Amino acid sequence: xxxxxxxxxxxxxxxxxxxxxxxxxxxxxxxxxxxxxxxxxxxxxxxxxxxxxxxxxxxxxxxxxxxxxxxxxxxxxxxxxxxxxxxxxxxxxxxxxxxxxxxxxxxxxxxxxxxxxxxxxxxxxxxxxxxxxxxxxxxxxxxxxxxxxxxxxxxxxxxxxxxxxxxxxxxxxxxxxxxxxxxxxxxxxxxxxxxxxxxxxxxxxxxxxxxxxxxxxxxxxxxxxxxxxxxxxxxxxxxxxxxxxxxxxxxxxxxxxxxxxxxxxxxxxxxxxxxxxxxxxxxxxxxxxxxxxxxxxxxxxxxxxxxxxxxxxxxxxxxxxxxxxxxxxxxxxxxxxxxxxxxxxxxxxxxxxxxxxxxxxxxxxxxxxxxxxxxxxxxxxxxxxxxxxxxxxxxxxxxxxxxxxxxxxxxxxxxxxxxxxxxxxxxxxxxxxxxxxxxxxxxxxxxxxxxxxxxxxxxxxxxxxxxxxxxxxxxxxxxxxxxxxxxxxxxxxxxxxxxxxxxxxxxxxxxxxxxxxxxxxxxxxxxxxxxxxxxxxxxxxxxxxxxxxxxxxxxxxxxxxxxxxxxxxxxxxxxxxxxxxxxxxxxxxxxxxxxxxxxxxxxxxxxxxxxxxxxxxxxxxxxxxx
Length: 626
Description:
This protein is of the alpha/beta class. The protein contains 15 helices and 36 strands. Helices cover 25% and strands 28% of the residues. Helix 3 (214-224) runs parallel beside helix 6, helix 4 (239-252) packs across helix 5 and helix 8 (427-433) crosses helix 15 (600-618). The chain starts with 12 loop residues before the first helix and ends with a strand.
């Protein structure tokens, strides 16, 4: 009786992919030094544990001043201030700016006590009487406040983020020295066939010997796909040697690949080893080249047998195996280095220089939309929020909405996010985003979230607080959160009226924040009770016009002693062990772009709301289902 095995029922390509997907290739997660993290994939969410920058700093060379001392100053009638000292970058200030004084300051230097703005040097003159200030400034002008780039408590990266030099830059800025990453799948490679000789050994062509191409080709493919290749000795066509090497590889690796000995001839017997020592799931696939393919389990490892011919082996590897290795490593599928897309919005430009415009990508109805991402040269987050660059010619005045552009990607692995969200920053939202695959969320605040949703760029916006402007959107759901003031222990702040009537330092949120809108609404109520204009109250609050980014930033100002109270959430106060004065409960809504209602990423977000919102709010004091 013949030992030849016939290919009777060839599996379809989809069945082959399903068979491979049924195998467990996922390695154990590990922690690596930041210096070794490039190319790896985050295993857990990474939150910012500090503000970047960690101090209020000057964004230009000039003079640190009290803004109120410059009111009314102009070219014709400058204000003269006493020069009390100099603050250099990297040095702790040893001066205090008091009424009628100023301090010379360098770009990046710490803003000295008493100062709340910087006048750029070009608008000043040194005179015998002091420094002539030829312009008026407002609180916060030419100042980059602590947390303006990255706010403590914000979601820096989610699990599944591919770590490139851009991510390493932001992680470095956050002081991270070790990174939890997905493990690298180890792939054992065993070549079979008596005719094969390893490169470097003597070759006897008369005996039909050829060099072993597959072992090194497939090993390179494994490394390219994000795995770690382990080469085992050549097995030849000896059954016992095949069995020994395959079992050894299965004991040491997540996946075992063999090449050769997979066909139906009497001498190609590797499938018998798999049937004897494991489980053969598939033998033969309806593809050309690559029909004699094996899929199975060997010991506790996954197994795939590749054809012997190098072209067939590499084709099958790239088509079926490489995606599985990349998935096990958490890596995205590769893409070309450029993408053609259409501008999602009009972008004006008229500086007369070639512009390398950072852009993000979002998919909509089969099209790739391109939107500008430019938060300034000092913001490291611009790097991770952009997918590539559009080069704009110097003589281009603007890029029109809908105009075709070519995006040069930062790397071939870049793909548009599955979901582009914008709006309010929120700790419950961070937990929901963890449930999505490759989302991107820009915490631009509720007001900007509504505006961008009206412009049609994002897939969804998360908004909170009152608003006098409606937006056409699909309400996917939401939650409530208790807001108020995070206060220093024994500060004596019990409500908004204390900020107005007392001598307390306050830290506010930016005008785009939903929390700010809620706070302003509370001030409107107090103003109505007193029969005055809201501005009369805001003028009385020390620090109202000094704003910070991120829901934890005001609380951290309070903890540092820089303020007595800050606008925030009960959950933040509890997390940072601060006192809290409740001012109310506001609703947080998740709004979907009506044109993207059926986009898979939007559906995934809605599913995350349905299945994960209860757990998200249950872990946060002051949060509840809406």
